[in-house]
Design a protein that fits this description.
The chain has 4 helices and no strands. By secondary structure, the protein is mostly helical. It has a domain of about 55 residues. Helix 2 runs parallel beside helix 4 and helix 3 crosses helix 4. The relative contact order is 0.14.
Length: about 90
């Protein structure tokens, strides 16, 4: 039961959210299916490249390093989205 709960919480943070926020900014004119596909692929690339970089810098991955990296990646993507969205919605 605990593993299922952890997976349910982790899947969006790994495979959806980072790419979703960046796709909304970088490709606003795509339709829903294209955005969904691109957000999943972009999320996988962002998370795995960041984990690869952390592993190369620290020498090994622990559950703490992995969790912290995923949280930081998601926060960075949300921050970039919020900043870009505010700049777009400001009247000129």
């Amino acid at each position: 039961m605990y593993t299922l709960l952890r997976l349910t919480i982790a899947i969006p943070f790994l495979f959806i959210l980072p790419g979703f926020f960046l796709t909304k900014i970088l490709f606003p004119s795509l339709d829903r299916i294209e955005k969904s596909t691109l957000s999943v692929l972009l999320s996988m690339v962002i998370v795995y490249v960041s984990l690869f970089a952390v592993e190369k810098i620290l020498g090994k991955l622990t559950s703490f390093n992995t969790t912290l990296t995923i949280v930081i990646v998601n926060l960075l993507c949300v921050t970039i989205f919020v900043i870009a969205h505010r700049k777009q919605s400001k009247p000129s």
